[in-house]
Amino acid sequence: MIEAGTQTARPDRGSRDHRRPVEGLSQPELSAWLDARGLPAYRADQIRRWLFRKRATSFEGMTDLSGALRQALAGEFVVGSLAMQQCLESRDGSVKYLFRLGDGSVVETVYIPEADRVTLCLSTQVGCGLGCVFCATARMGLKRNLTQAEIVDQVLEVQRRGPEGTRISNLVFMGMGEPLANYDATRGALDVITDARSGMGISPRKITVSTAGLLPQMRRLMEETRVNLAISLHSVRDAVRSELMPVNRKYSVAQLLECCRSLPVPRRKRITFEYLLISGLNDLAADAAELAGKLRGIRCKVNLIPFNPHEGSGYRRPPDPAIERFGETLRARGVQVNVRRPRGDDIQAACGQLYHAADTSAA
Ligand code: SAH
Question: 3-class SS at 200?
Answer without folding.
Answer: coil
